[in-house]
Design goal:
383 residues; alpha/beta; five-stranded mixed beta sheet; 15 strands; 30% helix; globular
Length: 383
Amino acid sequence: MSNTPATPSKTLSEVTSRSELPRAKRLVIKVGSSSLTTVEGGISHERLKFLVDTLARTVAAGTEVVLVSSGAIAAGLAPLALAKRPKDLATQQAAASVGQGLLLAQYTQEFAAHGLTVAQVLLTADDLMRRTTYTNALRALVRLLNLGVLPIVNENDTVATHEIRFGDNDRLASLVAHLVKADALLLFSDVDSVYDAHPAAGGSRIAHVGHPDEIQAIDLGSAGSNVGTGGMITKVQAATLSASAGIPALVTSTANAAKALAGEDVGTWFAARNTRRSARDVWLAHLAVAHGRLMLDPGAIRAISSGEKSLLAAGITGATGDFEAGDAVEICDAQGTVVARGLVNYSALELPAMFGRSTTALHEYLGEGYEKPVVHVDDLALI
């Protein structure tokens, strides 16, 4: 018998409103650096303890929690005598390697006081792009939850490069929510809600977002604090991404965490739309950096639009860009409309000789190694 329990099917979340959060079976909760650290950059014991006490009550009530925690780089600033978050990647990695242990040590101590064991899970974007590591990450997280362990997830800042970074932990949290098929995503920071203008200028709280168009014209302010990379922009992007792929999201402050988890009317609720998708599909469809484009004939567009067929060379009419095998590309119709994204199995130099040829013809014309599809259905995400 497998040790990995079955995950929910790809349907809309059973949690359809904030009032239903107390009955959620599984939640992904993200907390920002500003909610855990002092102005000087070190970890605030009081803030961290407040968060842990709140989450421990949620777990005791029967809800599984995956915590996506920022703060590793911020926690490493003071020990390295850095006044603010460094801009260069190498110093960020150094601060993360120092701060990650400090942060996890405090989480371990505080959750242990509630009889809870925690586990550190470090991810990069690459881990959720490749089928093998994606499956391994899912298996590990679900098994930890099954064992009663609370996973604490962070981007692997020590080794992540600009090319494979998630960019911020808000988007990482959205992907993790889809990875573990959470009932909802909660994004905690130092702002209690999304507003239609700055509160100091008379802005009003937006309580509910049913569609991204409702907040498209709103000025969401700057990108983040002096200790984090996030900000309201990335939170709204992550919440919108999550909701559009079937998992509702709530944006509110860490101070409102207890009220939010109790289902009270706080924060901004992003209602789920469409059916749930895998984290890998969400990444490919919305976040992967495309290195080129493939243009398809109408027959190929119809074939891949079923979501059940791979893209074959016979249906490709052209390509642009400079990509290698394994890179993400956009897949377009004759008018240039992007209908999907996928990981291509051939480079930009190889493909032109393959256009319009059947699998049999490719084998005869180019030899062995060209029988595989240009984009396998498992590596293709419809937009």
